[in-house]
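Sample A.
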Amino acid sequence: MANVMQKPTPRWVDRLPSHSTEPKQMQVLCLGLSRTGTMSLWDALKRLGYTPYHFKEVSKPENIKDRHVLCWREAFYAKLYGSGAPYGKVEFDKLLYRYDAVTDAPAVNFSSELLAAYPYAKVILSKRDPDKWLESIQRSYHAVIESPVFKMAAVVDVPLSILGELFELVLRDWTGGDWRNRAKIRQAYEAHNDRIRSLVPKERLLEWEPRDGWEPICEFLGKNVPEEVFPHSNKGDDVSRGVLLAARIRIVKWTFRKTIVPLGFIGMVVAGWIVLRRPAFWTGSTNRCLGFLRNFIQT
């Protein structure tokens, strides 16, 4: 019998819908690591007229429909484990079709690939004190991944499980797989910033800290400085509190669906069985049926 060749399973990114128009031109790559003011940059760029991509964008309905979390996981698998073809301009154009700027993980984990794909985009490298940055990573990424509540929710909720895996993949990429090693994470911060400086010409690079506010960004991008105060978003442990709240809600919903509803049904069955066992029920039912037939015949 001839060997039957199995058709390879298409990648998630290859399943994304085609568009009749060209993707937005990528204009700004904010390549500072997570927890360096990336949410504030996302908010600021929106107010300056851009459409920036941030980790939180994966939860938008259109991006849930397009399976963004699965695409990013696929990109990590290709980069870290050699599983499948690596992502490049073709893949990023499909995944980031609606966006003209990026900030935060998981996009910044592909900084070299994004710089190669969009060589004319301006680059903002957001920074903060390395020790405070490490503390923030521990209060966000590690607080989620190592939380018993999140681990429990991930068992019963596939999307949360994949989200947790993405958090871990971000750290694995920074540390060569040793994502629990705090010293390696801190080293990764310095190494990442040095790599961006080595790859981006000075005229295309702005090094920025949240305390710098609007002026350096607007001057760099050729935009007028807004009158409103610069946004300082996502402070402290906002990320972990938000994700863990979602995890608790998933657990409550799962518990209700798997226990409360079945118990309620069982209670109805038991109550019905008790009622049906009463002789008075059957006597009353017989009389009601005979009365209905008598009235029907007489009409």
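Sample B, a different protein:
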Amino acid sequence: MNPSTTSSNKGGSGPLYRIPPYHYIHVLDQNTNITRLEVGPKTFIKQDNETVIIGPEKMITVPPRHYCVVESPVVRNEAGEVQYDGNGQAKLVHADLDIRLAQSDQAPFPLYPGEVLRQPVTPLKVVPANSAFRLKAVLD
């Protein structure tokens, strides 16, 4: 039996999901057709009209001197809070790329519904002394 859920398959048909710390799930509400994010640690009880479509998945941790690339990131306001539309779905910047670097105050982060991890956590390239990188711009 899977320790994260009472169901034997990962998507789950069981009603009880135990979301460990630094893990998340995506839940589709079939009445409104909106997918929302549930972040652990918590015990999530699935309603009859809900389907867990992803998870439990580990949050992404970017260590020092590393980065990752997220495609179609969520829209954030000046305070860094995620913006939602009138129906409660997170707003996305479609076809955009967000390069996330390690920051001193950054905790592990989940991927919101619609976000895609385009490039996994990768070490930054360091230019040795008396050397250079040749760069080519691919986005304007």
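Observation for Sample B: Strands lie at 16-19, 23-29, 34-39, 42-45, 50-58, 66-71, 97-101, 116-123.
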